[in-house]
Design goal:
The chain has 117 residues and is of the alpha+beta class. It is 44% helix and 20% strand. It has a five-stranded mixed sheet. A hairpin with a 6-residue loop joins strand 3 and strand 4.
């Protein structure tokens, strides 16, 4: 294995380790081509703005495609004490509701759930 491949393998292992060892609450927005075409960039911006406006201790992150292009924009939310939830077909109004209801009040948005982990 050459040095380039060794470095890539090491980098991937570090990313995997950091993701698995992650502490705290987080939100991920699918921002691959399918997500952006469906409006995920606006959803991402609204989520970032709402988190900042409310001074919440939660990270809002970008992620790639998860293979459910029909349900974009997809937003995955992990809050301590609740199951991890993936919401689908989210718009700006739904993004505000995710922050208000799911993040702040610990209540799920039943009509937008695509997956519960």
């Amino acid at each position: 294995m050459n040095n380039k491949n060794k470095k890539a393998k090491t980098d991937l292992a570090a990313i995997k380790h950091n993701r698995q060892g992650r502490k705290g609450d987080w939100i991920r927005v699918g921002l691959s081509t399918c997500g952006i075409a469906a409006g995920a960039d606006k959803v991402f911006s609204v989520l970032k703005e709402e988190v900042a406006k409310r001074n919440l201790d939660i990270s809002v992150e970008r992620c790639g495609c998860v293979g459910q292009c029909y349900a974009e924009p997809l937003v995955e939310v992990a809050i301590a004490g609740l199951p991890r939830v993936t919401y689908g077909q989210i718009d700006a109004k739904d993004a505000v509701a995710i922050i208000e209801r799911h993040v702040c009040n610990k209540k799920l948005l039943q009509d937008r759930i695509y997956k519960i982990s």
